[in-house]
């Protein structure tokens, strides 16, 4: 519009990419449109000539114009500051056109009005950025307060940190104490298979050096920084990156690396300080999650039978007590199956205890596949197993027990272990609360009595307890 109104030969709007950085042509008009659009210029050379009372500069000194990296045939230039932002400015440049004082005043007024609009847009953008930062900080705080499994924590921490510092690439590395190397736990914007090949020992590479020294590294120009002496330097879109150690009291547990600001700017000292501040909280969160996983593993071990992977007898008793209490409160039945491998002693005598253990393991795996998600299978002792059937009456429990009995007899993997002797089968005793028992102990006793009767009647069958049968 300005080009047509004022019959400009050439004009270009330059936007500074970052504070004290070069300017890039984002819109152009006139004879030199193709040369100026997307070109880079060093306008600070000309701005040095501007006095406080001059909103623009007219310069016909060829040497200054050449230093500004304009096209070589430019003979004159007016500069009108369009908008001076937080980090950079937008400038209108008019080339090879002689303007009257009235035209200069009109263009200056137009730039002032347009600048107000640009300022409003930038402020809205800044508010949106601050909201993202506050959201990322809030999410980081929630992650620190709520222990997560390490895999989820590592990825969430990196994602929120990248959002907080507006970076595109990053990795989170944690020391593997057994291998004594920094292991990549989370990454973004990096090829995982390639990156995982380069787990570093302390002192190796940039991250290894940051880990070993405990000193953060802020690099604003990768190619010029004398501290980066690697022959194979990191490949980033921009020449700036930051790497900080994750410290926990008197030790370092890992390294956090960020690169490629979305805006194209370099990482600043403020970015480094912010990353160091949240790094302390990240270290605490990682430690808490490690302790949480170890606690969960100890809990799992304490309730699990080491051989079969099913629940152990102690936890079975706790769960059965809970289900009986729930049955009393809600007046719903709960059934109990007691299952025993037929002729297991003969198998042990033939194949030894290691062979017997293998059968127990295979049976434990099979039982998990044959029961419902709400059912609870446990190893009661020796070759005897129990299955709690919540919210299940005797008729339904019998159907489930019969299916389990038949599926085990048809299980080819199990039958191969018994091929030299006989087919592997099980006997099952069944009792239901409150029909067959009033207490926890009585329910187990009656299910066991039903199991004993199943053995007496020929094995490989299901017997459901009833008072008449045992009167």
Keywords summarizing the entry:
alpha+beta; Beta-Lactamase; Alpha-Beta Plaits; 16 strands; 3 domains; 471 residues; 45% helix; 6-stranded antiparallel sheet; single chain; 5-stranded antiparallel sheet
Q: How would you summarize what this structure contains?
A:
The protein is an alpha+beta fold. The chain folds into 3 domains: 2-124, 2-Layer Sandwich (Beta-Lactamase), CATH 3.30.450; 146-298, GAF domain (Beta-Lactamase, 2-Layer Sandwich), CATH 3.30.450.40; 313-464, Alpha-Beta Plaits, CATH 3.30.70.270. The chain has helices at 2-5, 33-36, 44-47, 62-67, 101-145, 150-164, 192-196, 205-213, 269-303, 313-330, 344-370, 394-410, 412-417, 440-456, and strands at 10-16, 23-30, 40-41, 58-59, 77-84, 89-95, 167-176, 181-188, 217-219, 241-248, 251-261, 334-341, 376-381, 384-390, 426-433, 462-464.
